[in-house]
Amino acid sequence: MHPRTPVLPFLLALCVLVGCQTLYYSTWEKLGKEKRHLLRDNVEGAQQAQQKASEEFKDALTQVQEIYGFEGGDLEAMYHRLQDDYDACAYRAQAVEERIETVEQIAGDLFAEWEAEIDQMANHKLKSASRESLIDTKHRYARLHRAMEKARVRMTPALNHLRDYVLYLKHNLNAQAVGTLGSEVNSIQAEVENLIADISDSIQEADAFLKTLE
């Protein structure tokens, strides 16, 4: 069973994704959080979602390797554990997708607001300093976004390959069929290891970006 998401944050996150950003931001402002705080919170949330996804994919890979090394026992039970691992990977991948979409939306809105407020400033020195800060923050966010997107995109082929493996086992649940899957196991291992490496890079970029928001 997957952990429950607190109702208010979940509803507000859903709100920003479906387009009622004004309500989303005004509600949080009443609770003392500006867009900058929301961006920080959601980048941290994306980090956590990616870390959980990484752990689920590792578990799935371990189960694939155990099935391929099958030397007796309850093969059907092993298949069902792999099915559960795949379902968990798919769930976590969707959570990562939603978190990244929220980060993208809030970042865009924050930068647009920041730009508009700079235009309202009369003091040229302060205006210039604020614009430099905006440019630097956007540059650092771009690095984070590239890393998150790279990890997000890599989840799809890894999930698809796992799904195909699970379905093949469902249709051919015997030791002989398992023994023919050596090349598939190697491909899944390579994809999952690359995904985990990309997630690690994304988490590190998030750490670097979060320091700019302190």
What keyword list fits this structure?
elongated, mainly alpha, disordered N terminus, 7 helices, single chain, 214 residues
Describe the structure.
With 214 residues, the chain is mainly alpha-helical. It has one domain (7-212). Helices cover 86% and strands 0% of the residues. The chain is built from 7 helices and no strands. It has helices at residues 7-18, 21-30, 35-68, 75-119, 124-171, 175-179, 182-212.
Write a brief structural summary:
The chain is mainly α.
Describe the SSE topology.
Blueprint: H1 7-18, H2 21-30, H3 35-68, H4 75-119, H5 124-171, H6 175-179, H7 182-212
* Number of separate strands: 0
The low-confidence parts are 1-5
**Oligomeric status of the shown chains?**
single chain
The radius of gyration is 22 Å
